[in-house]
Write a structure and sequence with these properties.
The complex is a heterodimer of chains A (445) and B (293). With 445 residues, chain A is α/β, with parallel strands linked by helices. Chain A contains 23 helices and 14 strands. Chain A is 48% helix and 11% strand. A four-stranded mixed sheet of chain A has the order 9-10-8-11. In chain A, helix 11 crosses helix 12 (223-230), helix 13 packs across helix 23 and helix 22 runs antiparallel to helix 23 (432-440). Chain B contains 13 helices and two strands; from the N terminus they run ααββααααααααααα. Classes of the chains: A alpha/beta (445), B mainly alpha (293).
Chain lengths: 445, 293
């Protein structure tokens, strides 16, 4: 799709694609029995799943591999996709009722839109099954619920956002990592005086800016503010907590809190995180991917104990619990409503017996993803970096509220608007009031 | 009699092309027009919306901004690319020493895919690890892709870098078509290089200039891949061109109705531009530049 749009006639290609999915959506699900069911990834009507390529793909492959070996009659056909192409392809596939049996997702606004379109199965009964229920951390499993019913169950590591810092640089200026927002602001001039950028962030990719807003809103106003927004209450973005959060962001930008030229820094090849371990920036606010990037690019930085990590600081006078976290609770499997009864049955049995079992959880941990399962403490204690993994596990497990990344939590249209508008806040192109007005316009019921 | 038959038969010969055009251009276009009157998130039911999308899109400052940016890109791209490719084309058409080697270097960007070009430039322009990070080149460590006032010109530069070779190729071929006798006559008359260029080369290239300009101007309506990979339309809306706006509205915000409105606007603008360019430049008459030779 991307390449087609890149050709000299993007509109025709797009109109055609739209038209074709429209036509396909109107048709019956006829071509799915035969070998032509390749669009759905399955062969001979068997169940199918699409997974995301990357370090975690191996854990998924292993799990499906052992299932397939044990269930020759219900073999899953697996296809791997890169993250961004997947997000676009899956939407077209779901719209055309050609989705794989197991639909990989993030929860939030997209899951809600699937539920509204009747595209995914209600699996509440499966989630209530004692064997399944006691497996997952409740705070994480809750993200798969829409209106009290479960439509998705976790399949990947927990991904809370925390502050990662360079211990050497803190020692150099004789400072401690910040516990409160005022401490954080006080660090900014100290680091700048030493010629060190306080924070590195990829402003170009836009989404790395989101946790700043989400954390500040939560720390200042508590989870209610974000809940009002996702519930679509009129003028929810005008909440004083939002205005204070965007004001604080602009204060931090004005004070030189972010590395010079941060809005040119991309996440490609980890250029943002590289500033941290090369000693040019002291801190970054990031997902566990930050840790994995450093582990790949400069493992010695971690093994020498130079990488520190702390939760996002509290805001003085704020209503939010400092134990609340922001990030991606996990990824999730949903079952496609368009699948055949046999495919659905296989998917249910897979979820019940094999999803995040001990071997699966161990595989995830081996590639640096902390599994969202109960009782992972022992496995973590035996891992290569128990201190880090248990911090991530505890943060996720004990969080009274785990706020999903805002671009995923909101409906797609509002999420897209937020990315651009928040970037303009960081660039000081718009005021906090303009931010609220622009975002309120996305809430129209 | 035979003339009529020949015309009928030649009319029949256009059928396959016409059928392709209808199936792959006219029908999807009609689909986009219909979709522009509906509300659809790509998943659920398509519901009739009437002209609601149109008033919303036309009233949205982001659309106006996208139109202005697209016009800017169009004008600047033409102003930057035309002289460079014209001069390079004339140069590479000659017989100087090392010409072939230099020509290969000039044409190199033509071989690279747009995405590769964009990714490479993104790395080169990184303020910390790009060119600016090379000792001695610190002055290049600007906020190239993050400064809303600067980024448009960076995009124009990258687009020029990518497309100048193609237009150079057009000009090179055209210059080689110019009869040598014209230059020989000019030599005898005592015209210097500049005068030869002004009074022989340029007029002879008239049709090529029009072709190249039409391609540049209509092409600038579809600049998508480079900008998408390089900036994603950012920072803010600083490079959210019309095609990018359409794509992001359709596939990121999942609002197919509004995206179709933008698509229709793009088609109409593109057609209007192409028609007026060919009409007012006299291109349709296809007048030869070598009459009387």
């Amino acid at each position: 799709m991307k390449t087609a749009v890149g050709s000299p006639r993007p509109l025709l290609a797009m109109a055609l694609a739209v038209l074709m999915t429209g036509v396909a959506a109107c048709g019956t699900s006829g071509p799915r029995q035969a070998g032509t069911a390749s669009a759905a990834g399955g062969d001979a009507g068997g169940p199918s799943a699409w997974i995301i390529s990357g370090v975690t793909a191996k854990a998924f492959q292993n799990s499906f591999g052992s299932w397939n070996a044990a269930h020759p009659g219900q073999k899953f056909a697996i296809q791997e996709f890169a993250n961004d192409p997947y997000k676009q392809k899956i939407r077209t596939a779901v719209g055309a009722k050609q989705a794989p049996t197991l639909i990989y997702g993030w929860g939030g606004g997209v899951l809600t839109s699937y539920v509204a379109a009747g595209a995914v199965e209600d699996i509440s009964d499966l989630a209530e099954d004692p064997a399944v229920k006691k497996r997952f951390l409740p705070s994480i499993a809750a993200v798969g619920k829409v209106d009290g019913k479960t439509y998705a169950l976790p399949n990947n590591g927990v991904k809370p956002v925390v502050i990662y810092y360079n211990k050497d640089l803190f020692a150099k200026i004789g400072a401690q990592p910040p516990k409160t927002w005022n401490e954080l602001m006080a660090l900014v001039p100290k680091f700048n005086a030493a010629g060190i950028a306080p924070f590195t962030v990829s402003g170009q990719a836009k989404w790395p800016l989101l946790p700043w807003l989400a954390y500040l809103i939560d720390r200042i106003g508590g989870p209610r503010v974000m809940n009002d927004i996702t519930a679509g209450k009129p003028n929810a973005w005008s909440d004083p907590a939002v205005t204070e959060a965007t004001t604080k962001i602009q204060e931090l930008v004005k004070a030189g809190g972010f590395v010079k030229g941060f809005s040119s820094i991309s996440t490609d090849s980890g250029a943002d995180v590289a500033l941290l371990y090369t000693g040019k920036a002291a801190m970054t606010l990031g997902l566990p991917a930050t840790y994995q990037t450093i582990k790949t690019a400069n493992p010695k930085f971690i093994s020498d104990g130079k990488l520190g990590y702390v939760p996002f600081p509290a805001v003085e006078g704020g209503k939010g619990d400092p134990a609340n976290v922001v990030g991606n609770p996990s990824n999730f499997w949903s079952i496609s409503s368009a699948a055949t009864p046999e495919q659905k049955q296989a998917a249910r049995e897979y979820i019940k017996n094999d999803l995040l079992n001990d071997k699966y959880a161990a595989d995830l941990l081996a590639v640096g993803n902390v599994p969202p399962v109960e009782g992972a403490e022992d496995a973590i204690a035996k891992s290569d970096d128990p201190a880090y993994y248990s911090m991530i596990y505890e943060v996720a497990k004990k969080a009274p509220n785990f706020q999903l990344s805002l671009d995923q939590a909101l409906a797609p249209e509002a999420g897209d608007k937020l990315l651009t508008t928040l970037q303009q806040v960081f660039l000081e192109e718009i005021t906090p009031e303009q931010f609220a007005t622009t975002m309120n316009a996305t809430i129209s019921g | 009699m035979s003339a009529t038959r020949a015309r009928t038969r030649s009319g029949l010969l256009t059928l396959p092309a016409l059928a392709m055009f209808v199936v792959f251009a006219v029908v999807p276009l009609g689909g986009a027009v219909i979709l522009s009157l509906t509300r659809w998130d790509g998943l659920g039911e398509i519901s009739w919306e009437g002209f609601g999308n149109w008033t919303e899109v036309l009233g949205d400052p982001v659309t106006g901004n996208a139109l202005v940016l697209t016009v800017k890109i169009m004008v600047f791209s033409w102003v930057v690319q035309t002289p460079i490719s014209l001069l390079l084309g004339v140069f590479t058409a000659g017989t100087q020493r090392y010409r072939a080697v230099l020509a290969v270097l000039y044409f190199l960007p033509l071989l690279l895919s747009s995405a590769a070009v964009a990714i490479a430039f993104k790395a080169v322009l990184d303020p910390n690890f790009g060119l600016g990070g090379v000792p001695g080149l610190g002055f290049l460590s600007l906020d190239w892709l993050g400064d809303p006032d600067l980024v448009l010109y960076v995009v124009i530069f990258v687009i020029a870098w990518q497309f100048v070779p193609f237009h150079t190729l057009l000009y090179q071929a055209a210059v080689r078509q110019i009869p040598a006798s014209l230059y020989e006559a000019a030599d005898i008359d005592g015209a210097g290089r500049v005068k030869q260029f002004r009074y022989i080369t340029l007029p002879q290239l008239r049709n090529t200039i029009i072709t190249s300009s039409t391609l540049m101007v209509t092409g600038s309506l579809t600049y998508f891949d480079v900008v998408f990979v390089l900036t994603g339309g950012g920072p803010g809306n600083a490079t959210r061109l019309l095609p990018l706006d359409m794509y992001l509205t359709g596939f990121s915000a999942n609002d197919m109705g509004k995206a179709s409105v933008l698509a229709v606007i793009l088609v109409v603008t593109g057609l209007a531009l192409a028609f007026s360019l060919t009409k007012y430049t006299g291109f349709v008459r296809m007048r030869s530049q070598q009459e009387g030779l």
